Amino acid sequence: MSEKKDERHRDVAVNRRAYHDYFIDEKMEAGIMLTGTEVKSVRNGRTNLRDGFVKGYTLIPLRVYFSRNHAKVELGLARGKRQYDKREAIAERDAKREIDRAMRRR
Known about the structure:
With 106 residues, this protein is of the alpha+beta class. It has helices spanning 16-21, 36-43, 83-105; strands at 9-14, 22-31, 58-67, 70-80.
């Protein structure tokens, strides 16, 4: 079987905190123009996505990855979550986990 390596996406950094703090309404992909030393740093995993954002209807970097040897960033158009929204999401996740555990025990 021939596997196409150039079509694989290799995540370098993922902003998991963004999914906790925001509702992601839309995702888009953008290329990044990097110099040689910057590419080397990204390949070694030295990237930080937590501090990157644009105010208003927030545009947040969700992940950085390579696609066909080109560095790409996935951006999410997001709205901020309130504290009670975060608690509700955690409660839903915990309930789903309990249901899955109960189904495995059967």
